[in-house]
């Protein structure tokens, strides 16, 4: 933004209730498991969005590479894995657009609502449109809608608490529980329909779930605080045509690159990686160079850089649940349950079961420890090290034949995934809202999701190198790299905490 646009300066803090009376009311409201009742509405729409998202994603990869006779599209398996990684990265990359619209035009709550409508349309396209047309239209709409919903749902949760409210981390952990209730049920039910009636029935159930979430949220959204609708950095009306033209030009450029073969299924992951890196650098430069942030806020943004890098390393391994682990479950896992072969997608529900069980434990633990709990950099360092250890746990089963890995063994590995996740994902969402400068609140949340975007796209690229016939180098290399990243962060905990200026 230029220096001659004072009308863009935001009004009021987007990180919590706008006034003291609202803050006092929020502090006294404990109707939703000790949290503000308004959390229930965001909890609900996020739960149904995750139901549809993970329900669809649980069957997406096998839909792409299963043969036409099996109801799939018959793509090469490595290319299909790259597409899934690129799609997942695009979901989080599109949080930039959702955050920008929230901060400049509509506010977080309205973007959340409209994004839910776009997601419904995307899942309907996947369910009803045949072949690659349905995949293309559906994935674009779901990616755009999910990106807008994710960044802004997190931001809306942040408006329910004062920055120093001790319930804040516990509230985000409860919010995370809603995410994983949806993530548990989605793959179970869509996978069951896919295995009995066909892929498009599974996609149709995902559409129905998101529709339920939209209806539920439309009734409860009015009870959210005014801070959730606040536009912190309004775009002047005379700039609307300029940005509309930029949007149209961007779509045209993408269409031309697809038409001339520059963007292909084979290189989607790499393109998303490049775009995400460029967006990340641009975001950090814009925020750090802004005249609207003070020295303390600038220091906190610098502190976010090592957390961002650690988050990328974590997600590049964790998100392989939807690529490598799916392939592993299809070709290596013993899925026999008392004479009945469970659907491949059911493996995606193992992690959410552990999340549901353990998220309450972690929320209780952080609340119980209070100021004595480990700092955020320590949690991040331990989280990525544990994630690396989870990859090393695949090694005892490397080189086995079909159905050679017991289900209980993979479940144990995914338990380790879960412990690592709980040290990074809800903690990352919470610390991002605390480190965010007042004028870049939602966009800092988008920066956290950019780390997920980059990690997810990298996971798709890495999955192309996974060879079920030669697994030891793959799991060993990635596991040790992640452990090394965690050790480096632990070594530099004190300097990072100094940069965080009182935020832990």
TrEMBL record:
The keyword Lyase does not apply. InterPro entries: Dipep/tripep_permease, MFS_dom, MFS_trans_sf, MFS_Transporters, POT_fam, PTR2_symporter_CS. It is a multi-pass membrane protein. Residues 38-497 form the Major facilitator superfamily (MFS) profile domain. Its main location: membrane. It is found in: Cell membrane; Membrane. The keyword Cell inner membrane does not apply. It comes from the Bacteria. The chain crosses the membrane at residues 51-68, 80-102, 111-133, 173-193, 199-219, 240-259, 271-289, 301-318, 346-366, 378-398, 404-424, 445-466, 472-493. Keywords: Cell membrane, Membrane, Transmembrane, Transmembrane helix, Transport. Belongs to the major facilitator superfamily. Proton-dependent oligopeptide transporter (POT/PTR) (TC 2.A.17) family. PANTHER family: PROTON-DEPENDENT OLIGOPEPTIDE FAMILY TRANSPORT PROTEIN (PTHR23517:SF15), RESISTANCE PROTEIN MDTM, PUTATIVE-RELATED-RELATED (PTHR23517). This is Peptide MFS transporter. It comes from Microbacterium pullorum.
């Amino acid at each position: 933004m230029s220096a001659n646009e004072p009308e863009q300066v935001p009004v009021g803090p987007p990180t919590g209730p706008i006034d003291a009376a609202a803050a006092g009311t929020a502090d006294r409201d404990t109707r939703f498991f000790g949290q503000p009742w308004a959390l229930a509405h965001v909890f609900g729409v996020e739960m149904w969005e995750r139901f549809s998202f993970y329900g669809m994603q649980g069957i997406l990869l096998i839909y792409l590479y299963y043969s036409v006779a099996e109801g799939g599209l018959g793509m090469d398996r490595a290319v299909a894995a790259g597409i899934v990684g690129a799609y997942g990265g695009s979901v989080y990359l599109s949080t930039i657009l959702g955050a920008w619209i929230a901060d400049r035009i509509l506010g977080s709550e309205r973007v959340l609502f409209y994004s839910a409508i776009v997601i419904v349309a995307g899942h309907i396209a996947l369910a009803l449109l045949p072949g690659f047309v349905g995949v293309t239209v559906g994935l674009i709409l779901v990616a755009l809608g999910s990106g807008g919903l994710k960044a802004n749902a997190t931001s809306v949760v942040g408006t329910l608490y004062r920055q120093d409210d001790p319930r804040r981390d516990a509230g985000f952990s409860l919010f995370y529980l809603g995410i994983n209730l949806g993530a548990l049920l989605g793959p179970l039910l869509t996978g069951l329909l896919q295995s009995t009636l066909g892929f498009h029935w599974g996609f149709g159930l995902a559409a129905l779930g998101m529709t339920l979430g939209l209806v539920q949220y439309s009734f409860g959204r009015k009870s959210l605080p005014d801070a959730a609708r606040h536009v912190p950095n309004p775009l002047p009306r005379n700039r609307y045509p300029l940005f509309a033209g930029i949007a149209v030009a961007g779509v045209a450029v993408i269409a031309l690159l697809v038409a001339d073969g520059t963007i292909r299924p084979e290189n989607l992951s790499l393109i998303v990686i490049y775009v995400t890196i460029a967006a990340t650098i641009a975001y950090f430069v814009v925020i750090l160079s802004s005249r609207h942030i003070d020295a303390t806020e600038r220091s906190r943004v610098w502190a976010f850089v090592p957390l961002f890098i650690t988050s990328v390393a974590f997600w590049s391994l964790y998100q392989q649940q939807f690529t490598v682990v799916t392939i592993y479950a299809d070709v290596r896992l013993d899925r026999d349950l008392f004479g009945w072969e469970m659907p491949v997608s059911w493996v995606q529900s193992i992690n959410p079961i552990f999340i549901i069980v353990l998220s309450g434990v972690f929320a209780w633990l952080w609340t119980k420890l209070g100021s004595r709990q480990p700092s955020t950099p320590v949690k991040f360092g331990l989280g990525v090290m544990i994630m690396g250890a989870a990859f090393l746990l695949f090694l005892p089963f490397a080189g086995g034949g079909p159905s050679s890995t017991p289900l209980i063994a993979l479940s144990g590995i995914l338990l380790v995934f879960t412990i690592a996740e709980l040290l990074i994902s809800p903690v990352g969402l919470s610390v991002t809202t605390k480190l965010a400068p007042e004028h870049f609140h939602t966009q800092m949340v988008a920066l956290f999701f950019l780390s997920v975007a980059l990690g997810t796209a990298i996971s798709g690229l890495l999955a192309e190198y996974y060879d079920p016939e030669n697994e030891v180098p793959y799991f060993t290399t990635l596991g040790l790299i992640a452990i090394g990243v965690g050790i480096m962060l632990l070594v530099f905990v004190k300097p990072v905490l100094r940069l965080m200026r009182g935020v832990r």
